[in-house]
Amino acid sequence: MTMNPYLSQLSKIGSASSRKIVGLMSGTSLDGLDIALCEFSGYGLETQVKLLNFRTISYSSELKSALKLISSKPRVDLEQVTVLNAYLGNIYGEMVLACLGDWNVEVTDVDLIASHGQTIYHAPKHQHGLEFYPNATFQIGDGDHVAVKTGIITLSDFRQKHVAAGGEGAPLSIYGDYLLFSSDTEHRVLLNIGGISNFTYLPATGSGLAVMSTDVGPGNTLMDQFVQREYPGLGYDDGGSIAAAGEINESLLNLLLDDAFFKRSFPKTTGPEVFSLSYLDNVLGKAGLIELTNADVLATLSAFTVAGIELGLSACIPDNTDFSLYISGGGMHNTFLRQQLEAKLGLSIKSTALLDIDPDAKEAVLFAVLANECISGAALQYPTTSGLLPVAMGKISLPR
Ligand SMILES: Nc1ncnc2c1ncn2[C@@H]1O[C@H](COP(=O)(O)OP(=O)(O)OP(=O)(O)O)[C@@H](O)[C@H]1O
Ligand SMILES: CC(=O)N[C@H]1[C@@H]2OC[C@@H](O2)[C@@H](O)[C@@H]1O[C@H](C)C(=O)O
């Protein structure tokens, strides 16, 4: 009997002692594509990963604008969604080929691509509230286009299996965090501040405490959107320097925190569908605070991000637990935000670089971990206390 040669290749990749996987991540900030070339050996808790190369390729301003028009909005132009789904898959493929060329890596040396895609709408049931509909989430940048463009077997659309198995489709970082960063001796928190903030809590293995992960609220999304509107040409508040010149307005902060999301039990997920400029404008209008300076608004938005993180950590981690906090995501470059966070939590924040993963590359690496798990077949072996749904995630696209 004959077999599609890509299927036998896939079987060889899964059983090989090591494999090279390119992880691709583009998050809710819509800033560009993170490309991480990783070398894996093993799977499950034996996973070893080495980050061989990493680059972020910014999206063009035209692409950013086109994506903004169809992202996180309940009503959009379906033709734009359709064309961007194909277009993104195609340019992700081109970007991978360009990186491999620059890194002098042969296409044939790469076993797999793990492509997250671009989330354009995230709709957990607690948010959409539609009685007869399930949790739902939608990523574009079709995997077949990536596979055909590069000639590399591609796994994509990781979140749908999680939703199908009863999850909200996020956060998925918990899988890679658990497999790569669990420690026998240290309680750890892996905090990612991207557009949205989320963390994984990894109690020391053997402590009997449960691993968990949740979104906690906005990361940079509200600050970014406000800066982009008020300072045309600026993408974000570099280092938090505008915010640092302002003062936190407690009334605004309390009103920002007065949303159903913060009253819901953990774990939970969210997105820019909730934390949008209209969320901010609505609160500013309600409080008669329109006259605040931009710096005051940004200082308060930064405090809002910090407050969401603090609420999440204090609700999910038993009192008086000593833990180390490792940060990743673009928000770690916001000095003002980091200082506020350290002061609020009363601890010194570490970088995931101390755990051998470049914090800017972490999410792209974690999607490569999901592909490694899917292909090597270990996905069903998570302990029931881990909070990990036992599913192999990622749809497989063959190049021909
Ligand atoms: N030097 C800096 N100063 C302040 N903020 C910065 C700096 N560099 C990056 N950022 C912030 O980080 C954001 C990008 O972060 P990142 O790429 O982690 O987000 P993302 O992956 O899109 O988000 P998510 O994980 O929520 O989907 C930028 O939009 C900006 O707000
Ligand atoms: C639906 C979606 O794309 N969610 C993202 C987003 O960005 C951060 C937070 O919200 C997190 O839940 C998730 O991404 C990371 C990578 C995750 O799944 O862990």
Largest sheet: 7 strands, mixed
Give the termini distance in whole angstroms: 20 Å
Task: Using the alpha-carbon principal axes, give the shape.
Answer: globular
- Which stretches are poorly predicted, pLDDT < 50 over at least 5 residues? none
Hetero groups bound? adenosine-5'-triphosphate, ligand AH0
CATH superfamily of the largest domain: ATPase, nucleotide binding domain
In terms of DSSP E residues, the strand content is 15-25%
H and E order: HEEEHHEHEHEHHEEEHHHHHHEHEHE
CATH topology of the largest domain: Nucleotidyltransferase, domain 5
Structural class: alpha/beta
The DSSP helix count reads 15
Helix-residue proportion:
25-40%
Q: How confident is the prediction overall: mean pLDDT?
A: 96
Task: Report on this structure.
The protein is an alpha/beta fold and 400 residues long. It has 2 domains: 5-173 and 360-397, Nucleotidyltransferase, domain 5 (2-Layer Sandwich), CATH 3.30.420.40; 182-355, Nucleotidyltransferase, domain 5. It is built from 15 helices and 12 strands. The strands form 2 sheets. Strands 1, 2, 3, 4, 5, 6 and 12 form a 7-stranded mixed sheet that branches. Strands 9-8-7-10-11 form a 5-stranded mixed sheet, with helices on both faces. Helix 3 packs parallel to helix 5, helix 10 packs across helix 13 and helix 13 (294-316) packs across helix 14 (335-345). The site of the ligand CC(=O)N[C@H]1[C@@H]2OC[C@@H](O2)[C@@H](O)[C@@H]1O[C@H](C)C(=O)O has 18 residues, from strand 4 and strand 8.
